[in-house]
Structures
1.
Amino acid sequence: MSLSAVPCEQAFSSGAITSTIRRNSLVPSTFSALQLLKAAHKNGHVSAASEVARQADLFADLS
């Protein structure tokens, strides 16, 4: 197996996990956005904890 096949197979596997029977009505743009968010989170570009902290700071500034 070539090394270039591994990321491709991971992308297809991730897509299969996202596109389940319960989610088969996602429009293509929503599906793509969800896949991008999943990849960004997996690669450390997006963090739920840091986003919560940022939102809490914004809320505190409004108070």
Note: The chain has a mean pLDDT of 78.
2.
Amino acid sequence: MSGLDPDMADLLARAVPVTVQPPVRVFGATPVIGEATWAALHEARAWVVRSRT
């Protein structure tokens, strides 16, 4: 998930069970529009590459 405000990110991090697979990653909002989404996309692509090997 990307673009969440800090309070929502904290709430979600505490609410999601640790056993969720693959792990859920939260990318908090930044002052730059789209920055968190790009960071999430970059991480997702890296995860795909890692999972193929």
Note: The mean pLDDT is 85.
3.
Amino acid sequence: MAFLDEFESILKEVVHAKRLSASKMTKLTEIALKSMQHDTQIVSILYRSHKSLPPAAKVSSLYVFDALSRAARSQVNKQGITGDINSPKGNSATFLLKVEGVLEGLFQDMVTTGSPEAKVSKSPLLTDYLLHVAAVALYELRERPNNCCHHLLALLIWLVSSRDLTCLVPVIW
């Protein structure tokens, strides 16, 4: 589990830094990909860290979730990996399923946080991130209609309708 201790240490450095470091993000991604058999622990570390962060560091945490999810998705596509959420040993596909399970909590946290950095109306970065997530959900829905992203799209629609996120409506509809 030395990989997970190193992962958590670098994660803390990344999210608490004033700027995202490409080299640290690369190192974090490499460690995560090598440790995908411990996907549950990785997602737990990510989520627990995100929830404990001060509001100003939460946007960086979302970028970490995004980078790791993209890397895992790339590995799934290149290697044709499939995942069973009930499997005792994790992989990139099960990691993505488990990240999907915490997305609602992440979005709720970002929407309700009191930091100006995390407010959608004041943060083009977060607005762009939500637009990206909405676009990915729509792509998945269109390309893989039997995939499990219907509830993600419903979540995004709910967030748009229940908060002042009207800038996202044209993208979702």
Note: The mean pLDDT is 75.
